[in-house]
Design goal:
Oligomer: single chain
Strand content: 5-15%
Structural class: alpha+beta
CATH class of the largest domain: Mainly Alpha
Distance between the termini: 12 Å
Helix content: 55-70%
Number of helices: 8
CATH architecture of the largest domain: Up-down Bundle
Radius of gyration: 25 Å
Number of strands: 4
Strand order of the largest sheet: 1-4-3-2
Shape: elongated
CATH topology of the largest domain: Alpha-lytic protease prodomain-like
Largest sheet: 4 strands, mixed
CATH superfamily of the largest domain: Cation efflux protein transmembrane domain
């Protein structure tokens, strides 16, 4: 007896995620404009580098908004397993753009250090960066709480991105303050650290999502939970054994396929009821969206 259960209709959390992504696009666009104007006016490479990070945030938020909308679509004839691959593909695209930005910032920072840099005068760059730190700190707290409450990957990603932005803006603030005090080389040095941070974030994001696109096995903790639940049913003698267990990503969703041996005395109805029990058990694990189960009477 073979049976497959899938859940491809997304939860209301994705509606909140879409609203959050739309708000983030507006906020990041405003921050980008402010940083470009102030960075250009006061000749601060650190602020301009941070502006590049904000531009990446705008693109990231737009891609997240698109990805969440696509992922929320139910399965159809052309996409029988839903649209779960959209999110990791979008995230990988963002990772590539992030690494390109890091390379550009690194080149500019090295050039500025070779030239020796120029003094920065005025409080505007520091004030802009302080405002960014305050806004991003607020996003970190709010998006983090909502993401955990709604189990929304997009909101959790937004919180992580906000945390990184706070660190980057703090680096830029150190560079601006140093240049304002008569150490112009600190501006280029801060930009260099920012480039390194952006590159690491891009690399990490790409690495984490390419495994999902390639259908890799999820993290060891998730695999242990799935196996543990099956072992419990085995100890309870609900099933005799399980084998041919395959656990892998399809996009951002986890798919599970397995065979279970059951007592042939259960009959057709008993096997069917046990089948549904196993399906419900595994589908209750966070991230598991699809279960393909083959029941073998022995």
């Amino acid at each position: 007896m073979s049976r497959t259960v899938s859940v491809f209709h997304r939860k209301p959390a994705f509606s909140a995620s879409m609203k959050a992504a739309a708000v983030l696009i507006g906020l990041n666009a405003l921050l980008f404009v402010a940083k470009v104007v102030v960075g250009w006016r006061y000749n601060s490479l650190a602020v301009l580098s941070d502006a590049g990070n904000s531009l990446t945030d705008v693109i990231t938020s737009a891609i997240i908004l698109f990805a969440v909308r696509e992922t929320a679509k139910p399965a159809d004839a052309e996409h029988p397993f839903g649209h779960a691959r959209t999110e990791p593909l979008a995230a990988f695209t963002v990772a590539v753009l992030t690494c390109v930005l890091a390379a550009q910032v690194f080149r500019e920072a090295v050039g500025r250090l070779i030239e020796g840099g120029e003094p920065i005068q005025g409080m505007a760059p520091a004030l802009v960066l302080l405002a960014v730190i305050a806004i991003k700190g607020g996003i970190l707290v709010v998006a983090g709480r909502m993401g955990r409450k709604l189990r929304s990957p997009a909101l959790i990603a937004a919180a992580i991105d906000a945390k990184m932005d706070v660190v980057i803006s703090l680096m830029a603030l150190v560079g601006v303050a140093g240049a304002d005090l008569g150490w112009p080389w600190l501006d280029g040095t801060a930009a260099l650290f920012i480039a390194g941070w952006i590159a690491w974030v891009g690399f990490s994001l790409g690495r984490d999502n390419i495994v999902k696109l390639l259908g890799a096995t999820p993290d060891a903790a998730t695999v242990r939970v799935i196996r543990a639940r099956l072992e419990v049913m085995k100890k309870q003698r609900r099933i005799r054994n399980f084998h041919e267990l395959r656990i892998h990503y399809v996009g951002s969703d986890i798919h599970v396929a397995l065979h279970v041996d059951v007592d042939r005395q259960l009959g057709l109805q008993g096997s069917h009821d046990l089948d549904e029990e196993i399906q419900a058990n595994l589908m209750g694990i966070p991230g598991v969206r699809h279960v393909a189960l083959h029941v073998d009477p022995v």
